[in-house]
Amino acid sequence: MTRDLGRLALGAAIGLPAPLLLALVLLSAPATLLGGLGLVLFAAAVWLVRRLAGLQRDRFEVPRPYRSMPSGVLPRARALLQDPATWRDLAWLLSQFALGVAGVAVGFGLWQAALQCLTAPLLRALLPGRTGFDPAVLEFTHRSAALAWLLVPVGVGLVFLAYRAPGLLLETQTRLARALLGPTAKARLSASVEHLTATRAAAVDASAAELRRIERDLHDGAQVRLVALRMNIGLAEHVIDADPDTAKALMAEAKASAGTALAELRDLVRGIHPPVLADRGLAGAVQALALSSAVPVGLDLRLERRLSAPVESAAYFALAESLANAIRHSGAGTIRIIVIDEVHRLTMTVCDDGRGGADAGKGTGLQGIRRRLSAFDGTLRIASPAGGPTTLTMRLPCAS
């Protein structure tokens, strides 16, 4: 109850600057297109309105709907004028002013009225005569003692209303914030299209980079081995009659080259889609990763079904890259991997007790994980304070 009253008071405080800011915006907006002082006043007013709206969004977990701003003072001011979110913020602030003041008046007024009604007989006894500062309830209690006692059950009802009213008033403020401060359906659609375009472009870039890697590995590895193999076999063919010992040496070298080429091709295929992933699923593949790790890895795998092949592949390589990063950079003594199938999404967590300080902006490993997940509308969250520990939380949609 006290917490709700405090939140009502905070909502009223957020809405109090509304008349001043609204007047400032309306007076300065026409002059903004011409620049000068009007531009400065408009920018300052909109900045303050957005800060207040940001406080309310944080209170009720409402996403921000603002458009990206161009460079330059005048283009930025014109973009603010043309952004529907600017005017929706103003409409919200004016409504919040009315709701906030009304909420505080009702929330605290009900408790005051309930207290006066509950103590009406006592007030009548303590203040039998009229003074200049009588509570409003004494207008009734001075008339008769029976009426004073009848106000007691009324006070009980007011206590119930006073207990419930703040929650209802806060719910009204929440609905108002989500209606006016959240992105519109058009804005959400536009943001979804932009996100889809960006993630698909990242997926195409990642696929192209993967193809280049495969081409490079084939060119520099297996292809070189196979060329050497062909040359050795050709030389052995020419000298086999004249110098059998040399031919045998060349064939032995060719055999070794064939074995090396075969091993490189297997590693390459394993990098494209590990056989253990196809045979045993994600759980078995992650167990294989843990067994081959140079650092002890604890596993908590809650997988009751096979996921689609693309999702399993993305999840496996994200976990493999996360594990490799932890081993290579964190200096960790232990690593823990948690994989939970939540029906509609897969949540993967990789924790290590290393030195911390992991930053996606400082290396390509975490960026690669984020790109791989974004192709499936997945997300990566990094918590890595200096001194550790580091926790990577990856979420991947996997609807049945």
Automatic annotation (TrEMBL):
Enzyme class: transferase
SMART domains given in the database record: HATPase_c
Superkingdom as given in the UniProt entry: Bacteria
Residue ranges of every copy of the Histidine kinase/HSP90-like ATPase domain listed in the record: 310-400
InterPro entries per record: HATPase_C_sf, HATPase_dom, Put_sensor_dom, Sensor_HK_TwoCompSys, Sig_transdc_His_kin_sub3_dim/P
Record-listed E.C. numbers: 2.7.13.3
Transmembrane feature ranges: 20-49, 90-114, 146-165
Pfam families: HATPase_c, HisKA_3, Sensor
Gene3D superfamilies: 1.20.5.1930, Histidine kinase-like ATPase, C-terminal domain
Coiled-coil segments on the chain, per record: none
Keywords: ATP-binding, Kinase, Membrane, Nucleotide-binding, Phosphoprotein, Transferase, Transmembrane, Transmembrane helix, Two-component regulatory system
Reactions accelerated catalytically: ATP + protein L-histidine = ADP + protein N-phospho-L-histidine
Entry protein name: histidine kinase
Upper lineage: Bacteria, Bacillati, Actinomycetota, Actinomycetes, Micromonosporales
